[in-house]
Each structure stands twice: as C-alpha cells, then as structure tokens.
Amino acid sequence: MENFFTRYTDSSAVFPSFPIIQHNCLGSWDIFLSLFHSFTMLPHPPLLVAIQDPPSRRSVLPRFPGFWSFAPPSWQPTGRHSCFSYLSCSTVFHDSSEMLSVDVFSPEGLFGSPHRSLRVTSVYLLRTNRPPYRSIPHEGIFSFLSCPHLALGDFNLHHPLADPCRSLSEREFIISTRYFDAAFDLRFQLLNTPEVYTRFPFDTISRPSVLDLAFANTALSPLVSSWDTLLPSTGSDHVPCVITLKPPAIMLPPPTPHWALLDLDAVGKALDTFTTLPSPARPTPNSLSRWFDISSTRLTTLLTSHPPSKCPCPRSKPWWSPRLSSLRREYHKFARMSRLDPSPLNWSNVKSSRRTYFKAIASAKRAHWSDFRSSATPRSLWTAKRFAFGRPPQRFPELPGASNAAEVAETLLDHFFPSKPSPLPLLRLTRYEE
After folding, report:
1. To 5 degrees, how large is the angle CA 306–CA 228–CA 247?
2. Of the residues 255, 271, 300, the one at which a domain ends
C-alpha cells in the first residue's frame, strides 16, 4: 500500500488518476464478473470497488484476481448488504451491517497532498416502515473528519438536486431532505451530475431515477476529478458509477461560460419550457430557503449549459498539458540541486531536463497550431492571421532615457523642436601698442 501511493509523490513522476467504482450487483455472479471484466475500458485500474448486494456462495464473499473482499461482521449471504473489493486496506466497522468504511493510509501523503489517510464509506439504505423509514439514520452516515472522506452507495433516495425533473411526493422530499441537509451541514458536496440516471428499471412502467449517490467533504473535493457512468451495462438495473480521483497539481481549472457566444434563441426556447417547483403550502423560513436554493440551482444550471466554455483567464495557455507541468517541476528541481551542489552530474541533469522541457513546449505549440488551423472558422480567421504574422512593428521609437511622463514630453520636444545653437560670443579688438 505504501509503494502504491508514494511512487507518485515525486515531482518528476506523471500523476495518474485513480477510479473508485460503485455498483449494485443484485446478488448475481454474472453481473459481478461483467463489472470486473469491464475495468479494461478504464485508462487506470480502479483503486476501490464498492458493491451493494454482492453475490455469495456458501457464505463466502466473491473474489477476483488482484482484489480483496471485505464485509461487515454481521454480513449474511441471504441479506442485501455492501462489501468492498480492494488491493490492500484497513476496514472500519459500524453499528449497521449495511455500511462499511475503508481507510487508506500513506505516510508520504495521498497524491502529494498533506493528507495521509482517505476514508471511503459504502452505504446501502433499505426501506423500512418505521422512522426514519430507512435502515440507517442520517446522522450515522456523515461525520466530521479532517481527512478526505467519500460517502457513496445506493441511498434509495429521490431528491431534486440529483434529479431536478422528477415529481416528488411530500414524504419522499422530507425523507431525502434529512440526509441531504445532514451532508451539507458537515460540508459534504454532491458529486452526481444532475439528471444523469443511475437506475433503469426492468419494467416499462417505472421511469429512470437517481438512487446511487456520492458525497465528498471539503478535504476530498479538490482531489475529485469527475463523476461519470462511462462503463457499459452489466445486466443490473443499476449502472456502475465511476468517481475519479486526481491530484490537484495537474487538474485543469474549471471552464467558464463564454457569454458572448451565447445562443439566445436556444436559451429562450429552454426558458419557455422551464418550470419551477411548487412553493411550499405552509412556508417556513427553512422550507422557503430550501425551495429558493433548489429553484435557483436549476435555473443557473440551465443557463450555464448553453454557452460554450472559454479559457479561465486571458493569460491561459491552451497548448499547456500535465506533461509540461511535470517536466517543468523536474527542470526546476534539478536547477535547485545544481545551485546547492554545482557538481558536473547535477549540471548535466539540468541541461538534459531543460532540453527536454523546451522541446516539449515547442512540440505542444506546433501540435496546437496544427489543430487550430484544421478547425479554423470564419470567426477565427483574423485570430489565425494575427498568430501567423506575429505582432505588428512598433509605431513609435523607443525612449530609453525617459522613465516618466515629464521625461517623455521633454524627449519628444527635444526631438521635434531641437534648440538652436547659441551664437558665438562677439570678439573684442584689443589695442595694438606697436
């Protein structure tokens, strides 16, 4: 476990991304095997696999090469509980058999961050007939931790933040709001993309829904790169959810909308069909604030989904890549070592890393320029011309001796209106005595 994480803490290494998979197997071996065989489609092997309702045989958990299986002590093969499959970890058991946590440790820090541990909690909420009408209360799932914490699983909850277009009954809204409020009070953030369904019922009467949820606390949010359902169907009515962890050092800044290129006609049509949730019948300050937040989030999501994205700032380099960041860190590391110890070996490493870094920059610029020309549009024609011909020459001469406005004005006056030379002094004739 130590080598698994610390080999990526070196500044010269290329940081990979680590997926965490969550899926409900419905107790089927075929679904279990189909899920694990689909991992070949991922660019990197999964770090953890959280399974709800796993298959079993003679009270034995399923196994797969390269993974270990864990379950709560009270786990029974006839029940529908959650288990973990992973390479190496330490488990944390809870009072409920439908919840299990895994702690991952690294003495050098996870992904180069100061945090040395990561907790992942798998939850499988079952419906009950007694309050809180779920098998685990909301205060038992989320807890305050200074280390990164990820809570994921099959929550069996319907909430407008995860599924904005779903019509909810008052009871469904009250039950789900308790869990979401408990998560938000402890600074957890919902990772699901709104309106991306995670369950597709086998019958043709029920509509798709979002039951598989993932929450990350403030310490883990910078390490989360994406949440997606990119794996193919395994035969279950649930789809596998992939949470990708990535170091913040190479994560690109979030894109911002380019409002100048906004299609107003498309936005107008979307606003015509936009409907808000009904206001609470007996409004209270909390319910009114919650209704306003949900409506505002839906409207903001609608507006930001139409315009294209642009660079975060005018000084952003579109040709920059994580590989260049890694090469730059390597070059500066060898440069610092050479300044501390100016030996021939360190100087050779500096020259080699600098040569590789500059060649990679030139190659990235050429590749980006080629892609830019191949995808040029009439809008970008003048931009391409400006890039091709470079900057125009300066129209005014440089004034090296002028550092402020008064000196610039005096220099220009002396240049255009030079002062006349002073006349020669009048010669005085002296008396010649002889």
Report:
1. 100
2. 255
73 and 101 Cβ atoms separated by less than 8 Å: no
Question: Residue 396: its pLDDT value, please?
Answer: 58
- The closest of 104, 129, 130 to 115, measured between CA atoms, is 104
Q: How many domains does the chain have?
A: 2
Domain final position from 239, 255, 271: 255
17 touches 43 (CB < 8 A): yes
Residues 62 and 164 in one domain: yes
Angstrom distance (rounded) from CA 354 to CA 332? 9
Cβ-based neighbours of 331, under 8 Å, separated by 6 or more: 350, 353, 354, 356, 357
* pLDDT score recorded for residue 6: 33
Three-state SS for 224-258 is EEEEECCCCCCCCCECCEEEEECCCCCCCCCCEEC
- H or E segment to which residue 300 belongs: helix 285-304
Q: The tokens 């180069």 sit on which residue?
A: 112
Place of tokens 């883990």: 220
**In the chain, which residues have pLDDT < 50?**
1-15, 77-88
Both tokens of 79, joined, read 């029940």
Distance between CA atoms of residues 360 and 375, nearest Å? 23
> Domain of 360?
322-377
Enter the tokens of residue 120: 């992942």
> Using the 8-state DSSP alphabet, how is residue 67 labeled?
-
Cα–Cα dist 393/172, whole Å: 68
Contact assessment for residue 84 and residue 23, using Cβ atoms and an 8 Å cutoff: no
